Structure formats: structure tokens, C-alpha cells
Amino acid sequence: RLSCIRNNVWLACCGVVSAGLAVLSSFGLMLFCGEPFVVTVANAPFLILGVGVDDMFIMIASWEQSSRKKEKSNVKSLLAETYSEAALSVTITTLTDVLAFFIGTWTAFPSVRSFCLYTGTAFVFCYIYTMTFFGAILVLNHKREEGNRHWLTCMRVRVDKDQAENSCLYNACCIGSCSRQSSEPEGEHPMSIFFKKYYGPFVTNKWVKVLVVLLYGTYLGGSVYGCTQIREGIDLRNLANDDSYVIPYYDDDEKYFSTYGPRVMVVITESVDYWNETVRHGIESCAQNLE
């Protein structure tokens, strides 16, 4: 927003901080419990940041709707209604994410198991911080707005009735007449107006409903067909860059040596006196017999 009072830059920054705290808490807990840290776990913060910012937007949107409906309500009732609107969707998304990653801990690959364990725990902490830390930030930001304080400096901003003499930049940065007041209620966000007046009626049209059902049926059929075409295994070429020397190596290996089958290796699990010539002859004789 252009208003120096209604601007929520610090609120958005605190939402990112909340996701960062979740990452630090989960990583610290897992390392304290002795869970090994593998390189794939370094990708987890990006997932947590995406989910944390999404939860932040849901909380802010619910707070704004509650504030518009109850201009004179106290902070407790506003926060209670915000949680009643936002907590359900945040809880459901968190539960599905946590369940998905904790199921992934059953895999036989240690690196994947560590990644799923770190990420699933981070989602739990992200939910906790969103419901506690970020809720408190919403209340503090609301008190700042009620006190007519600047979004950056938190200093009180004067209310200038005559804005025509000032430049637009000065009015946006230094004058607090755009803050929410009883005589000047804030209008709805343009995005909310778009979904309410245009997108919603369009989607609920009966012909659009039929089209959506047909598109979903097509998508479902394609998905079922795709599942029947899945092949188990992994092509090692896909793990390298297109210009890597590994790709022609695997091409030549498949072209010239695939008929020989996999290599067979023999491991001697006991201590062997390799200095003894008799022992060496015995090993060579064993290798010849296997060949």
C-alpha cells in the first residue's frame, strides 16, 4: 500500500523470519538428536519458506477481513476471528505436508530418509510459529496502525487535512490521513473484488461447470494412462548435465558392454596373509574357478 500507516512491509518480513525460525528449530532439534545432515537437506529451507509465506498471506487476509467487518472490535475478538478463519486451512495444509514427508521416512535410502525427517519436522515448527509468533506480530502491527505510527520508523505521523499543497510522494510517505479511521473506512482489495464480482460468477455458471468436469475427466484419464507407463528404475544419464562426459560414457557402455551383464566382484571377509605365496595362488585359483 502507498499509505505510510497501512504499509505492511515489516509484517511480511516477520512472516519470512517465522519460516526461518522454523528451519533453525527443526535443524537444531534433528542435529541434537543425532540425525545425520546430508546435502539434500539443504533444499528443505526453500520448501519451508514457500509454505510459511503462504500461511502468512492466509493469516493477513483473514485479519483484514475481520478488521473490515468489525471496525470497533477489540484486539482479542479480531485475533479470535482471524484464527477461526485461517487456522483451519493452515492446519489442513500442514497436516498433509507433515504426513507426506513422515511417510517418506520409511524409504530405504538414508539420504531421502534424512531429508524427509528434517523437512517434516520443519513443517511442524512452521505451524507452531505461524500460530504463535506471527499472530503476536499481527497484534503489534494493529496497535501500530491504531497509534497512527509510520510503518518504517514507528513514529507518530501527523494528519494533514490539506493534501493538495503537498506532492504525492510526500503525502504517501509522511502523512497519515490514509490510515483506517471511522470516518474513512478502507475499501476492499482489488484482488478480492475481482474474485468476488468476476471470477466467482464465471466459475459458478452451469456451462463452465460442465467444461470443468470434462477437463477434469480428461486430466484423470491422462493421469491413469501415465501411471500405466511408469517404469521403475533410474537412468543415470538424467543425473548429469547435457554436455557432461558421463553421458557418452553410459552410451558407449550400453552399446558395447551391455551384453556381458553386470560386473561380479568377490570379497574376502577374513584377514589374509597376502605375503604368503601359497595364499596368493589359492586366491588366483579361486578367481579362475569362478571365471
Give an overview of the whole structure.
With 291 residues, this protein is mainly alpha-helical. It folds into two domains: 8-187, no CATH class; 236-290, no CATH class. 64% of the residues lie in helices and 0% in strands. It contains ten helices and no strands. α1 (9-32) packs antiparallel against α5 (133-146), α2 runs antiparallel to α3 and α3 runs antiparallel to α4. The model is unreliable at 177-185 (pLDDT under 50).
Low-confidence spans: pLDDT under 50, at least 5 residues? 177-185
The biggest beta sheet reads: none
What count of domains describes the coordinates?
2
Separation, N- and C-terminal Cα atoms: 78 Å
Return the structural class: mainly alpha
Q: What is the strand tally?
A: 0
Q: How much helical structure, as a percent, in the residues?
A: 55-70%
Order of helices and strands: HHHHHHHHHH
Rg over alpha carbons = 31 Å
> What's the rounded overall pLDDT mean?
86
Q: Could you say which overall geometry the principal axes of the C-alpha atoms support?
A: elongated
Question: What attributes does this structure have?
Answer:
mainly alpha; single chain; elongated; 2 domains; 291 residues
